[in-house]
Specification:
two-stranded antiparallel sheet, 181 residues, globular, single chain, alpha+beta, 5 helices, eight-stranded mixed beta sheet
Length: 181
């Protein structure tokens, strides 16, 4: 699907492939970890260090049944991605990354709207679920402006599993956010 962005460029959404894995890992890491992530507001660099994902984690999402990893391109260049996973009456939204330097320009709003549309169309689901680290107030507020609501349902952060990063705090968890779509 092509969608007009605020700067009149076109976005193309497609299912990611094995050939996309290295570029997707680089995109996700740049949006969440390290100095490049500090240029925009989605960084987790102050609460988590180490990796956000790795090539195997991205391959697992691409290859999982009832899962899609959408690659988002503008002018043939990868600018964002997101995961959609069918989970019964809901879809799960995750692995959302927009290239640093492009955040704050409206791309995220368009991408999440397309993800919601695609999940509803593909699987007939009525809700979109996601998990967010509760200390990420600005990010949660952004999702709330998109219609997501906090549930208070928490799952523990996987301390000790460096595939998810190296926590810089001892109070991390994941909170479920839900939106009717």
């Amino acid at each position: 699907m092509d969608t007009a962005t605020p700067d009149s460029a076109r976005l193309a959404f497609r299912d990611a492939t094995e050939a996309d894995v290295p570029a997707l890992v680089a995109l996700i890491e740049s949006a969440y970890r390290g100095d490049s992530s500090r240029t925009d507001w989605t960084t987790e660099a102050d609460i988590l260090q180490g990796q956000r994902t790795d090539e195997q984690g991205v391959r697992d999402v691409i290859g999982a049944p009832a899962s899609r990893l959408l690659a988002v391109e503008r002018g043939g260049e990868l600018v964002a991605c997101c995961q959609l996973e069918h989970r019964g009456d809901a879809a799960y939204f995750g692995m959302f990354a927009v290239r640093p330097g492009l955040q704050g320009g409206g791309l995220g709003k368009l991408i999440i709207a397309e993800a919601e549309r695609a999940a509803k169309e593909s699987w007939g689901v009525g809700e979109m679920h996601m998990t967010v680290i509760p200390v990420r107030d600005d990010l949660i507020a952004w999702y709330e402006r998109r219609g997501y609501r906090r549930t208070g349902a928490l799952t523990p952060f996987p301390y000790g599993d460096e595939r998810f990063g190296i926590p810089q705090r001892d109070d991390l968890a994941f909170e479920l956010l839900v939106k009717t779509i």
